[in-house]
Amino acid sequence: MQLTPLGIEGAWLAESPIWADERGFFREWFKRQDVLEVTGIDFSSQQANVSRSNRGVIRGIHYSLAPEGQAKWVTCISGAILDVIVDIRPGSPTFGKVEYVDLRGDEGRAVLIDRGLGHGFISLEDETFVSYLLSSPYKPEFEFEIQPTDPELGINWHLELIGGVGFVTSAKDAQAPTLEERRTEKRLP
């Protein structure tokens, strides 16, 4: 497994080989020891989630303020997403920076998103499945979101990748506070 740092501290691209034959393919998509040796992050999975999304669905920007923090390991199982990582840590030299990573089910790529970073994605195809490993379990009282169309963040959701049609998001995400509102509420990492 090859791990490459992205432009936000604590965000990493992981690439692993895919072994394919007439039966299909096999992929090792997470190796804790490799992650620890390269990144220094001791990622231990406490919860695993899978989502299914249709083309044009935006999920996020989500983050956790759990006392132990919450890192994520995210991969696309089938279909395709544009993964979005946002530095929402006040005082960070890259505060407000956005990173984009293309993840596809037929490629051996994943992202490591350390504690304190925001995460979201747009599904580029129908029937897209995404798997997440979380370093701490979901606790509703510590889970927060930031509006995915917040002008301060200026996230380019690349709607041209879905034919320029509009996107779909949950009411909770659409009505989420902006980054500035979360900063004012003191609800950022």
Essential attributes:
189 residues, mainly beta, Jelly Rolls, 5-stranded antiparallel sheet, 3 helices, 13 strands, globular
Summarize the structure.
The protein has 189 residues and is mainly β. It has helices at 32-39, 171-174, 179-184, and strands at residues 2-5, 11-15, 18-21, 24-27, 47-53, 58-64, 72-78, 80-87, 98-104, 109-113, 117-123, 128-134, 143-145. The strands form three sheets. It has a six-stranded antiparallel β-sheet, covered by helices on one side. A five-stranded antiparallel β-sheet has the order 9-8-11-6-13, with no helix packed on it.
What does this structure look like?
The protein is mainly beta and 189 residues long. The chain has one domain: Sandwich (Jelly Rolls), CATH 2.60.120. The chain contains 3 helices and 13 strands; from the N terminus they run ββββαβββββββββαα. The protein has helices at residues 32-39, 171-174, 179-184, and strands spanning 2-5, 11-15, 18-21, 24-27, 47-53, 58-64, 72-78, 80-87, 98-104, 109-113, 117-123, 128-134, 143-145. Strands 1-2-10-7-12-5 form a 6-stranded antiparallel β-sheet, with helices on one face. A hairpin with a 2-residue loop joins β3 and β4. The longest helix has 8 residues, at 32-39. It is globular, with a radius of gyration of 16 Å. The model has no long low-confidence stretch (mean pLDDT 96).
Q: Please give the count of helices.
A: 3
Q: What is the second-level CATH architecture?
A: Sandwich
What proportion of the residues is helical, as a percent range?
Answer: under 10%
Kindly provide the radius of gyration, computed on alpha-carbon positions and rounded to a whole number of angstroms: 16 Å
Q: How many separate domains make up the residues?
A: 1
Integer average pLDDT: 96
Class computed from helices, strands and strand pairing: mainly beta
Rounded to the nearest angstrom, the distance between the terminal CA atoms is 29 Å
CATH top level label: Mainly Beta
